[in-house]
């Protein structure tokens, strides 16, 4: 198959391109800064010659969007929203204009659309959409608003011949440098991987190989449309998540951090505490109902595998 991945140069795109290429598919990445063969320039906002890559393709997987690992300033929030909404809109325009449109459009979304909660898991059918939680900082609602606008842009796109799926993805854990696992493991290796603000907040995640397998599963299932949670079925509290990561690496100590310490650290790292403090208790209801089987459903075993792969790579 020919698979086009707008915004495919980041961590998730790298994981997906590597796996799809290894499976024998022809993968084209749309990038603002193409650097290698198989990458084609686009600006993520306006139609151009790049649209010819979509015309005649089999699949589009749109991953475009500014990284959320930044300070949530008004300017950054605006760029996060615009980069997602505008790129989704123009991908829809390219598909609508295609003589031979792709049969499937997988659109990246985020599990952050769900409410900050501890009491029950969020699936697609009964999960609570966030933005109005009384115990969450008001500005967290911007992330939810961005997610809703992102999904709405795909939903309203006029692409009647293309099946559309919104990927409400949790954190994709891979041993690649620069990814979220790399950052969290670095903290654990330094002895700083203890619970943050008590550690009761839930962490939702998905192993990189299960993410790739879930994408393949959704491509093959013509009966699935709309939002789908891409998250392992066993989210767990942050304190347990980090303990399992420390155990996988062999680090017995993990210094805890208070909320104000997390805020100070996020300021220094030019990031935001929402990424650490929001309780994301998300489960993959539709995937499980459709018969998808996770190979790495539990975090301790997944962390062991990721550490083993990382160490194997470092020894080369």
Q: Choose one word for the global shape.
A: globular
Low-confidence segments, given as residue ranges, are none
By DSSP (H or I, 4+ residues per run), the number of helices equals: 11
Q: Helix/strand-derived class?
A: alpha/beta
Order of helices and strands: EHEEHEHEHEEHEEHEEHHHHH
Query: Major beta sheet, specifics?
Result: 7 strands, parallel
Rg, Å, rounded: 19 Å
Number of strands: 11
> Residue-averaged pLDDT, rounded?
92
Helix content estimate: 25-40%
Give the end-to-end Cα distance, rounded to a whole number of Å.
Answer: 32 Å
- The strands making up the biggest β-sheet line up spatially as 3-2-1-4-5-6-10
Strand content: 5-15%
Question: Could you walk me through the main structural features you see in this protein, from its secondary elements to its overall organization?
Answer:
The structure is a single chain. The protein is of the alpha/beta class and 316 residues long. It contains 11 helices and 11 strands. The strands form 3 sheets. A 7-stranded parallel sheet has the order 3-2-1-4-5-6-10, with helices on both faces. The longest helix has 24 residues, at 74-97. The protein is globular, with a radius of gyration of 19 Å. The chain starts with a strand and ends with a helix. The model has no long low-confidence stretch (mean pLDDT 92). Residues 273-306 form the DUF1731 domain.
Provide key terms for this protein:
alpha/beta; 7-stranded parallel sheet; two-stranded parallel ribbon; 11 helices; 14% strand; 11 strands; 316 residues
């Amino acid at each position: 198959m020919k698979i086009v991945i707008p915004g495919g140069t980041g961590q998730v795109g790298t994981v997906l391109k590597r796996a799809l290429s290894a499976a024998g598919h022809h993968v084209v990445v749309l990038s603002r800064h193409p650097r290698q063969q198989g990458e084609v320039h686009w600006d993520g906002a306006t139609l151009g010659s790049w649209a010819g890559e979509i015309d005649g393709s089999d699949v589009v997987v749109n991953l475009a969007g500014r990284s959320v690992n930044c300070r949530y300033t008004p300017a950054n929030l605006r760029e996060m929203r615009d980069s997602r909404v505008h790129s989704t809109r123009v991908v829809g325009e390219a598909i609508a204009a295609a003589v031979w449109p792709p049969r499937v459009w997988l659109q990246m979304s985020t599990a952050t659309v769900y409410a900050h909660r501890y009491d029950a898991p969020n699936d697609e059918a009964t999960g609570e959409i966030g933005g109005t939680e009384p115990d969450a900082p008001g500005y967290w609602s911007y992330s939810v608003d961005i997610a809703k606008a992102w999904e709405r842009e795909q939903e309203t796109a006029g692409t009647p011949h293309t099946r559309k799926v919104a990927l409400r993805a949790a954190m994709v854990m891979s041993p690649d440098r620069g990814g979220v696992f790399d950052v969290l493991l670095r903290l654990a290796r330094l002895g700083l991987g203890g619970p943050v603000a008590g550690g009761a907040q839930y962490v939702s995640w998905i192993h990189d190989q299960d993410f790739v397998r879930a994408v393949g599963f959704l491509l093959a299932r013509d009966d699935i449309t709309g939002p789908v949670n891409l998250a392992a079925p066993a989210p767990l509290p942050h304190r347990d998540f980090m303990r399992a990561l420390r155990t996988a690496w062999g680090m017995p100590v993990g210094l805890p951090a208070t909320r104000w310490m997390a805020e100070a650290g996020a300021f220094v790292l030019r990031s935001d505490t929402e990424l650490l403090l929001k309780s994301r208790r998300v489960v993959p209801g539709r995937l499980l109902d459709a018969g998808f089987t996770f190979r790495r459903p539990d975090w301790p075993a997944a962390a062991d595998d990721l550490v083993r792969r990382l160490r194997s790579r470092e020894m080369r």
